Amino acid sequence: MSTRDRQALLPGATLGVMGGGQLGRMFVHAAQALGYSTAVLDADPHSPAGLVSHHHVQKAYLDAEGLQQLAAVAQAITTEFENVPAEALRTLAQSRPVAPSGDAVAICQDRAAEKAHITASGVPCAPFALIDSEASLARVSDTLLPGILKTARMGYDGKGQVRIQSRAELAEAWAGLGRVPCVLEQRLALHRELSVIVARGVDGQWVHFPVQQNLHREGILAVTEVPAPDVDPALAAQAVAHAGAIAQSMHYVGVLCVEFFVVKAADGRLSLVANEMAPRPHNSGHYTIDACDVSQFELQVRAMAQLPLVAPRLHSPTVMLNLLGDLWWRDGVERTPAWDAVLALPGAHLHLYGKTSARPGRKMGHLTLTGADAASVRAVALQAASLLG
Ligand code: ADP
Ligand code: MG
Q: What is the pTM of this model?
């Protein structure tokens, strides 16, 4: 299909986004750089994306008037948050192109549906069981212990998860989570964690970023390094193929991130297990703003506007450090981190999201380091971490 055949929305049009968090803010920046106007729907008058957007509809996700206002001003709509009710996206889709679709987002909102989709795409998941009744609790196989009990819906950054050792702990943890539907996953010995971000257009063409290595602390992403050091090229190619297969089988349109665990068998062989997916740009792809020629946010814009998706190229090795609210506190006293010292480091790119209250664990910003080679980037990242710590 030639570019002319597409129903492309060219710069000058207005693009809308459901959700006003940092992902929405970086989407707005990318859209505006290309010459689009933007509209954000988020009830919070101080939302990071609302603060920088041309239009800000300050209504709840399911507010009919708010959805109407967004559709009136925006010619195409995306989402920055997977817990936007799928119903809101379906309503918007009656009058505007919406990417990703409410159906795709609905799959990602429910860990059981997500695992069913991943498995149906031919990609392995961690062994798990759905726990939604006393009977399903009693049926759980001992092979899933020790395990991690995760609420099927609304979990993020390790929230809604309990690590359990025994059946007694499992029953207690499920009661503690309010007996809502959960998945119990076998706790795997993780050799490492990787993620792959793909962008897919309405025409089915898809492109991907390089495989990313992620380090989590207390369930929250702390560090991403790209290229992922010492990854077997065959394993990396398989991760990309898995992410592509998952996107294809959903007829996905937009940016999708798939998180993987690398597990090591007794014979030393490494294999991939898909953990979860996000129907939007992902924290592990923030480095793409500074280290790639096209960012994940620009690809989100291009996919929703039906512009060509070009294969992104990493032009620098990179390390991304998440900046959590904890950095704003020392000995119980709030302070401003030493940004001047951090910005004196070569290849340091600071991104702050405009959030005013720095609660511990809250994602306030990120720092991307780029440089000539991976070893020097890693060394500068360590310096940055010690300046901030
Ligand atoms: P969230 O939606 O909060 O990101 P995840 O399912 O990705 O939830 O879990 C967060 C982190 O917890 C993972 O990145 C990984 O470090 C750890 N984790 C999750 N599931 C497992 C598992 N089955 N075995 C071992 N570690 C896990
Ligand atoms: Mg995760």
A: 0.96
Bridge partners (DSSP) listed for residue 13 = 11
Tens of pLDDT, residue by residue over 264-278, are 998 999 999 999 999
Q: Is 213 in the pocket of ligand 1 (CB under 6 A)?
A: no
Say which amino acid occupies 122.
G
Decide which of 3.40.50.300, 3.40.50.1100, 3.40.50.720, 3.30.470.20 is the CATH code for 190-388: 3.30.470.20
Count other Cβ atoms within 10 Å, centred on residue 277. Answer: 27
Which residues contribute to the annotated binding site? 111, 150, 155-161, 185-188, 193, 216, 275-276
Q: What is the domain partition of the chain in residue ranges?
A: 3-98, 127-186, 190-388
CATH number given to 3-98: 3.40.50.20
Confidence of residue 1 (pLDDT cuts 50, 70, 90): very low
* Mean pLDDT within 224-237: 97
Q: Which amino acid is at 193?
A: E
- Shortest-distance ligand to the CA of residue 157: 1
Can you tell me the distance from the alpha carbon of 158 to that of 276, in angstroms, rounded to the nearest whole number? 12
Nearest ligand for residue 224 CA: 1
